[in-house]
Each structure stands twice: as C-alpha cells, then as structure tokens.
Amino acid sequence: MQMAANRYFSDWKRYISPTLMVLGVLLLAYVGSQYYQMHKEQQRLRTVWEQQQKAQPATVSKAEPTPDDGLIRLEIPKIDLTAIVVDGTTRKDLKNGPGRIVGTPLPGEPGNAVISAHRDTFFRHIYELKAGDEINVQRNGQTVKFSVTGKKIVDPDDLSVLKQTEDPQLTLITCYPTYYIGPAPQRLVVFSKLISSGDDKTQAANTTH
Hints:
Layout: H1 2-14, H2 16-54, E1 72-76, E2 81-87, H3 91-96, E3 99-100, E4 112-116, E5 134-139, E6 142-154, E7 169-176, E8 186-199, H4 200-207
Parallel strand pairs: 2-3, 4-7
Antiparallel strand pairs: 1-2, 1-5, 3-4, 5-6, 6-8, 7-8
C-alpha cells in the first residue's frame, strides 16, 4: 500500500512542472491578447481623433461652442504618454484607454475634470509626476495645457478628489501601489491646474513669431 502511494505521489510530481508551464503560457497569451486589443482600439480612436481635427474650421468661433462628442487626446511629455480618452470608467471602458468620469466637465471647462486609468497600462508612471510638470489635452482643434500642482494617496472611498471647483482643474486617478499584486488597496491622485488654452492654429502661429 505504501509503495503504491509513493509511486502515485512520484507520478503526480512529474506533472507539476509541465502543468505550471502550460498555465504560465496561457496567462501570458491572455495578457498579450488584452494588450493587443487595447493597442488596436487606441489606433482606431487615434484615427477618428485625427479626422475630427482635420474637420475643424480654420477659425474657431467663441460664440459657437464646439460639440461635446469630440474625442480627447491626452499627452504627458514627462512620462512619454499619449492616449485617446474614452468616456466612462467601466471595466470595458478602461480596457480601451483612460476614461473620463461621466458627470465631470470636459478638460478646460470650469470645474474638476477627472480621468482615470489602470495602473498597469496607461497610468503606470503617473507616480513620477511632480509639481510643474505639464499635461496637454487636445480636443476639437483646441489645446488645453495644465500644470501639475501636487499628488496624494487616498482610500478608494475618498470622494473628496471628485469635488468640483470654480476654476478649470484636471485630476488623474489610478490604483496604488503601482506594482501591487492583486486589487490595490489605495488610489494615487494627481492634481493639475489650467495654465493656457486656445485653438491649435493660433498657438502654432504665435510660436513662429
């Protein structure tokens, strides 16, 4: 009986390594497919965004507000991030890109615009941002520039970071710690204030003089 048990245990151990290898390959394939789908969707959104920019008139009338369906392009030079922002922060939304929390204003409008993204994709490096770092938002031929004012760690249920303001403000949120295994217990919040806004053609002309 003992010999049979030992033989069974020995046979079972023989399959541990191959089983773990197969599971590892399957996990890598799943993660790879998720990143591929994300990259593919960002390419599609970028194409749509570029088409929207080309469709803008030569001059932008301040008397006629731009429509609300224009895609947002987020750029953070400090961490080499460029991404198209989607509306919404559901699990499906955040698989495709950073998501603007529905109900918060568009970046550049009065109030606190809030954008969230996963810590292991688009917002992996926002913890590196410091006061004075620039955040650019482009939408409907307009470029809105923000400057980082600070950051802090909060609990997931801390809604104070969503508090609206009179002046335009942009807030970025991601899970924290960045490299935590499993559901992260806290949130990293980066605050920034508006420093300039205007249409791209005017800004480009001003920089050449």
